[in-house]
Amino acid sequence: MGRLLVVDDDPNLRLLYQKELEAMGHQITTAASAEEARQAFEKEKPELVVLDLKLTAEEGGLEALRWMRDFDPRIPIVINTAYPAYKADFSSWLADAYIVKSGNLDELKVTINKFLTKN
Amino acid sequence: MTKKCWEEVLCSREDCPVKQNQEDYCWLSQARVCIDGQNRDIRERLHQCCRDCPHFQKTLERSTGRRLTDQVMAETILKLLEEMGGIHAELAASNRQLGQKMRELDILNEVTKALQTTLDLEQVLHIVLTGVTAAQALSLNRAFLLLVEDDKKTLRGKMAVGPGGAEEAFAIWNELQKSPRSFLEMALTPYHQVQGNILVNQLVKNISVSLNDRSSVLIQVLESKKPLLVNDASSLPGALELAGWLKVNSFIIAPLVAEQETLGIILADNAVTKMPIHSDDVTLLEIFAGQVSAFIRNAGLYQSLKDKVKELQQSQEKLLKAERMAAVGEMAAVLAHEIRTPMVSIGGFINSMIRERPEDPKFGQQLKIISFEIDRLEGVLTDTLELSRFKEPELVSENINDVVKRCLGVLKTEFDRQNINVEMSLEEGLAPVWIDRRQFPQVLLNILKNALHAMPLGGQLSVRTFLDPRQDLVISISDTGQGIPRQSLAHVFEPKFTTKRAGLGIGLAVSKKIVESHRGSIMVSSDEGRGTSFVIRLPSGNQTAV
Question: Could you tell me if the ipTM is greater than 0.85?
Answer without folding.
Answer: no
